[in-house]
Amino acid sequence: MNPQIDNLLHESRKFAPSEEFSSNAVATTALYEEAKADRLEFWARQARELLHWETPFTRTLDWSNPPFAKWFDDGKLNVAYNCLDRHVDAGNGDRVAFHWEGEQGDSRTLTYAELTAEVKKAANVLAGLGIGQGDRVAIYLPMIPEAVISMLAVARLGAVHSVIFGGFSADSIRSRVDDASAKLVITADGGWRKGKVSALKPAVDAALEARGDLGPQDSVTHVLVVKRGENEVEWTDRDLWWHEEMAKAEPEHEAEAFEAENPLFILYTSGTTGKPKGILHTSGGYLTQCAFTHKVVFDLKPESDVYWCTADVGWITGHSYVVYGPLANGATQVLYEGTPDTPHPGRWWEIIEKYKVTTFYTAPTAIRSFMKLGRKIPKQFDLSSIRLLGSVGEPINPEAWMWYRKVIGAKAAPIVDTWWQTETGAIMISALPGVTETKPGSAQVPIPGISIDVVDDDGTHVGTGNGGLLVVTEPWPSMLRGIWGDPERYKETYWDKFGDKYFAGDGARLDHDGDIWLLGRVDDVMNVSGHRLSTAEIESALVAHPFTAEAAVVGAADDTTGQAVVAFVIIKESMLEESAAVEDIAAVLRGHVGEQIGPIARPRDVFVVNELPKTRSGKIMRRLLRDVAEGRDVGDTTTLADTTVMQIITGQVTAK
Ligand code: WTA
User: Fold this and answer.
1) Whose CA is closest to atom 22 on ligand 1?
2) DSSP-derived secondary structure letter, 216
3) Ligand 1 pocket, residue 392 CB under 6 Å
4) Which residues, in sequence order, are bridge partners of residue 55?
């Protein structure tokens, strides 16, 4: 056991669910027992009970050609029908599906009946443009109801969507459209972000510009344009206004059932190489696990809950926990167009108060940035409707977890820290509220029906108290079915390392209770003098210091120790004065990490900066910080949310 890494696991706080919560909880311990007794039958029951099958399946899993799985493959269903029509047929047409809130404060309510009607018309529009089963449709939209309507219309036709996050550039759109040979692009003139209209269509125009002999034959025949920003846009022959086509569309559309393994979407995610991977998901298994996890992890009471997942539909969290899981379960949701701090820093809390949100699901990076601003802002709003909180996307340090619990959850709402990936499609590791005693900083336990292990490089289980690599040991319903157009890369990336286990690329540790702690990507694990250190662990130690608001740690090449720890920290607004009075703040923080973890983990350098380089989804780009730490020219910054950040950081570091 490595005593240095053990620090993070000294977390002794545990929070048992309240009697009241437990006695009304959707999740039960019986789920674990049932899944353990017969894993496949457990998933088959979820699939039958949570979804409507036009043709019931008789085969649960076909794993005869690993790593290519087929789930429920002789069954047929329509994904959009499961998310829409059946709720209306069941008498819930008047239930609100979305409370949509524009950044400017305009709002729109869509009931299940209204959403179903919109999707039927949109399906007719798309079919009229030649879209049918298997065709790819690229979607590049802001967070407006049409984003969800488009995705479901594509799904209704058995076609395949590829949603491209609205912050991506023309080049990224082009490579995604080309890779999938999309026939249609759905976009908007623009959308509201940070108090301004941010244009979208010009990026699509640039992406589709004639390329002479250089590119492949342009596959796109039409571009459908939603009017949202009201900004002037250029017009070409292939463009059509969404509202004009919708006005002409027939209202009725019969949903056809497709086989369970019919592709549902491609979502591009970055790998270790420069070329994004098109992660492929299919229908029946994906929808089953999304619906199951959304129901039990978020303790869903569809009649009374108002659920808000802040993720953009351009990311997997938006796919699984804004669109497919919640809608399959008939949930009522909030959908918000804008940024958290526009027009004021309490915008999110204001929305929670307005819609009486009960269930709130967001990312640690957002929690930490609110923490930085202080509790005064959320305290101005009535957050008493909240009864459950969720976290996703990166390890949440115990400090941020406790703040989330205290300030947002009024020390009562359970927190579920959910680990999963674009590739896994749905949640894999999480506490179940009402059942699990929660522990700040740990994602804890695999959900029922999911088999996870932590192993060493040879694939051997590491045992409690030890660290290693996170693997999934059995196929699961919402697993990726491959990388679009590249089955070899799928095998190589995820399966070749262990042969029979899915390699997630994350480091993890089992504590003495057997709970799982995620330690960041293994490419973010450093090796200092032969000791393995996790960036997440040192960041957590730094953030535990009263001065620190945020921290990012990288391993920089070092002649003596192999790698050295280099930290970049942001000081809390409220601590600026106090920290300025300290003579050598870097020394204080180095000492603090030394105390918390051990001398080996003490950062060689601590740089105090005002900003950290983050992608648009909020992930810290350590690669760029490594460039700074190693004194290199900073590499490609195009995927940063704010590309000027690196100039500022480099300036601050070299001025030291
Ligand atoms: C990280 C987002 C710690 C992890 C759903 C994973 C997490 C990557 C957690 C996938 C968590 C996600 N705790 N780390 N609760 N959730 N991650 O594909 O490194 O955008 O491999 O999916 O995020 O990111 P992706």
Assistant:
1) 421
2) P
3) yes
4) 76
Amino acid at 607: F
- What is the residue with the minimal CA distance to atom 4 of ligand 1? 394
CA atoms within 13 A on the CB side of 370: 29
Look at residue 491 and give its three-state secondary structure: helix
**And the tokens for 124?**
């007719």
- Expressed in percent and rounded to 5, the helix, strand and coil fractions of the chain are 35, 25, 40
For the chain, what is the largest distance between any 2 Cα atoms, rounded to a whole number of angstroms? 72
Q: Does residue 420's CB lie within 6 angstroms of at least one atom of ligand 1?
A: yes
pLDDT-based confidence at residue 3 (cuts at 50, 70, 90): very low
- Among 484, 532, 452, residue whose Cα is nearest residue 271: 484
What 3-state class would DSSP assign to 150? helix
Do residues 73 and 59 lie in contact, with contact meaning Cβ atoms separated by under 8 Å?
Answer: yes
Helix axes 535-543 and 585-596, enclosed angle (nearest 10): 120
Residues of the chain with pLDDT > 70: what percent? 94
Residue-wise pLDDT for 553-604, tens only, equals 998 887 777 678 999 999 999 988 888 888 899 999 999 988 877 777 889 9
How far from 453 is each of 220, 272, 514, CA to CA, in Å? 44, 23, 10
Q: Whose CA is nearest to atom 10 of ligand 1?
A: 421
Residues 6+ apart with CB under 8 A from 654: none
Domains of the chain: 50-63+84-282 (3.40.50.12780), 529-655 (3.30.300.30)
CA of 38 from ligand 1 middle (Å) equals 28
Look at residues 329, 255, 292, 263 and name the one whose alpha carbon lies nearest to residue 73. Answer: 263
| Residues sharing a CB contact under 8 Å with residue 497, sequence separation 6 or more, in sequence order | 503
Mean pLDDT of the chain: 91
Q: What are phi and psi of 392, to 5 degrees?
A: -155, 150
Q: Among 8-17, 25-34, 51-60, which stretch is predicted with the lowest mean pLDDT?
A: 8-17
Residue with token string 């400017």: 104
Query: What is the C-alpha separation between 263 and 454, in angstroms, rounded?
Result: 31
Residue nearest atom 23 in ligand 1 by C-alpha distance: 393
The structure tokens 């569809």 sit at: 302
Better-scored residue on pLDDT, 201 or 523: 201
Q: Is the pLDDT of residue 413 over 60?
A: yes
pLDDT per residue over 418-476, tens digit each?
999 999 999 999 999 999 999 999 999 999 999 999 999 999 999 999 999 999 999 99
Q: 36: which residues sit within 8 A by CB, 6+ positions away? A: 448
Does residue 1 surpass a pLDDT of 70?
A: no
How far is C-alpha 246 from the geometric centre of its chain's CA atoms? 31
Using one digit for the tens of pLDDT, what is the confidence trace for 602-632?
A: 899 999 998 888 887 778 888 889 888 888 8
Contacts of 265 (CB under 8 A, 6+ apart): 151, 155, 160, 161, 162, 163, 280, 281, 319
pLDDT score, position 633: 82
Which SS3 state, helix, strand or coil, does residue 344 take? coil
